[in-house]
């Protein structure tokens, strides 16, 4: 059985904060972010309400995805904004996509 791995970026309602993460179950991870934003607010995504998926990439191998996540986290905000805008020009909420 082949797994799919995701590097993803979520943001808050006002698009002022970005969260970059890595997972093999993106729908579950988004649910965790939402739950934390409504309850404990223990994670970065929960504390800053980064619950809106605006960007993702898929990977066949986890090492490649983890490397990409680390790379994106080092980027300046302007470069991250361009990456998101090239992929999702209106920064639409992609949470309801089928994965």
From TrEMBL:
Signal peptide: none annotated. CDD domains: GIY-YIG_unchar_3 (cd10448). PROSITE patterns: GIY_YIG. Residues 3-82 form the GIY-YIG domain. Keywords: Endonuclease, Hydrolase, Nuclease. One of its GO terms (molecular function) is endonuclease activity. It holds the Pfam family GIY-YIG. It comes from the Bacteria. Belongs to the UPF0213 family. PANTHER family: BSL5627 PROTEIN, UPF0213 PROTEIN YHBQ. This is Endonuclease. It comes from Algibacter mikhailovii.
């Amino acid at each position: 059985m082949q797994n799919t791995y995701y590097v993803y970026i979520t943001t808050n309602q006002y698009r002022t904060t970005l969260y970059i993460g890595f997972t093999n179950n993106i729908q579950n991870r988004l649910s965790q972010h939402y739950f934390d934003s409504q309850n404990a607010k223990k994670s970065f995504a929960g504390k800053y309400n980064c619950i809106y998926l605006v960007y993702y990439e898929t990977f066949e191998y986890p090492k490649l995805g983890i490397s990409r996540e680390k790379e994106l986290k080092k980027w300046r905000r302007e470069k991250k904004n361009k990456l998101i805008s090239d992929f999702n020009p209106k920064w639409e909420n992609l949470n309801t996509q089928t994965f």
